[in-house]
Amino acid sequence: MTAYDAVVIGAGHNGLASAIHLAARGWSVAVIEGKQDPGGAVKTGDFTLPGFRHDLAAMNLSMFAGSPFFATYKGELIAHGLGLVPAKRCFSSVFRDGTHLGVSTDLEETVGAIESISSQDAAAWRELFAEFGSDAPHIFGLLGSPMPSLAAAKVLWKAWREKGTGWLYDTARMLLASPRDFLDARFQNDKVKAMMSAWGLHLDFAPDVAGGALFPYLESMANQAFGMVIGQGGADTIIKAMTGLLQAKGGELMLGRPVERVEMSNRTATGVKLADGRVISARKAVISNVHPRLLFGKLVDADPARESFDRKVERFRAGPGTMLIHLAMDGLPDWKAGEALKDFAYVHVAPDLAMMSRVYSEAMAGLLPTEPALVVGQPTALDPSRAPEGKHVLWVQVRVLPAEIRGDASGTIAGTDWDEVKEAYADRVLDILEGYAPGTKAKILGRAVFSPLDLERENPNLIGGDNLSGSHHLDQNFLFRPVAGYSRYKTPVKSLYICGAATWPGAGTGAGSGFMLAKMLAGKG
């Protein structure tokens, strides 16, 4: 039997972050991945035509570039091949009247665009951005602390000392507010509100869902302040660098080795048994970077003493489904709203709050939305190496879809099975895109469509095509992620820990939970 100090199940970026830090602190570590390739939802491949590099799911690496994990291991990751490409023009929204509004790292450029439609909102943007400068250290400090923890309490104490009680109340209100309420209190123009509110749909926050204000606020202000970052050659640059660094620190990476179950002794996790029968022993910790419902539904034997916990895990809700459409292109879209849009990393096709509310309601009712919300990624506008010379790729993320189809809101697509309807629905998506960028369909050289069902097949952690690993609504966030009383990465099983997007601080590429867990296990000193 092979033995290590820690065994990590799943080679996603959180699991790798845990393994790297533990290895750096002298632990012997093995990372075991059932797939032949590491990375989880952070993968890049030639999904359409040879030479066209598409990010399977995650494209935006800004959270990774701004993470404490990256700050700690930046030099070593770069030495192992990590390449990041900054975007000056970060994101934009297109509107039905053929205009757009976007955010770049040039404050005057952003404010000038807003000024053209509302001088009052231009002033409000400056004010909000100035507030962000002093608020950001406290907010990011809270997001980078275990929940609850002494570190989080110290962040709040420092914020209170510097900003006062009023700031704590205002921040708490913002954390509880819906996107619409937060934006209505600060801006007048519907286009400004729509541009910011589109970020809510990246998680599962329609305009009127409580708790949804934080992400639009942070993404809008952080992009203004720091810009956006994508991976050189593909998002998998972070995975390649992390696996290289893990092995350089003595960690072992086992690929194509599905875990059959977590080995137990006296209600303590002692290792894992692989599908091939091999047992890998863990002297100190088994760390799971898989969805809690998979962990306790398949890999951990049932225990009557854990019945209440297991029941709560089973009720942990998935967020809405997602479709990814990858396009090999002869050229970038010719946006009606102007040539400047070709320079943006993201273009949101979610033109107003009414549409965002409607698409969310339709999807939650099990209907294929008539007008889905689109995030159009243009990575080759920043990184030409992802396609043959003169060619491009588009990354079209279709946000807020039903995992199980009950019908079509427009009544034009028959069928309730994603394998049956995905190409027809992708056609609807491209028709919508064509309306904002005529001639786009004629430029398509190849396409690959990943339905919510396809995404779950590719990565079982994406239950129902939910790329968030669980809804971020207030009852499943902060202290309640994934289960109240277990937000600090422990489980009722001794020596068994969890990390990943289903745990605090949630979805994204920041590797926060994996890094925080490793620091808790190994000590910070």
Strand content: 15-25%
Kindly provide the radius of gyration, computed on alpha-carbon positions and rounded to a whole number of angstroms. 22 Å
Task: Give the helix/strand class.
Answer: alpha/beta
Shape: globular
Major beta sheet, specifics? 7 strands, mixed
The overall strand count is 20
* Average pLDDT: 97
Helical fraction equals 25-40%
Contiguous uncertain segments of 5+ residues: none
* DSSP helical segment count: 17
Distance between the ends: 32 Å
Topology of this structure?
Layout: E1 2-9, H1 13-24, E2 29-32, E3 44-45, E4 54-55, H2 62-65, H3 68-79, E5 84-87, E6 89-94, E7 100-104, H4 107-115, H5 119-143, H6 150-163, H7 165-176, H8 179-184, H9 190-197, H10 214-226, E8 228-231, H11 237-248, E9 252-254, E10 259-265, E11 268-274, E12 279-288, H12 292-299, H13 307-314, E13 321-329, E14 346-349, H14 353-364, E15 367-368, E16 373-377, E17 392-401, E18 407-408, H15 418-436, E19 444-450, H16 452-458, E20 496-498, H17 512-522
Parallel strand pairs: 1-2, 1-12, 2-9, 6-14, 12-20, 15-18
Antiparallel strand pairs: 3-4, 5-8, 6-7, 10-11, 11-12, 13-17, 13-19, 14-16, 16-17
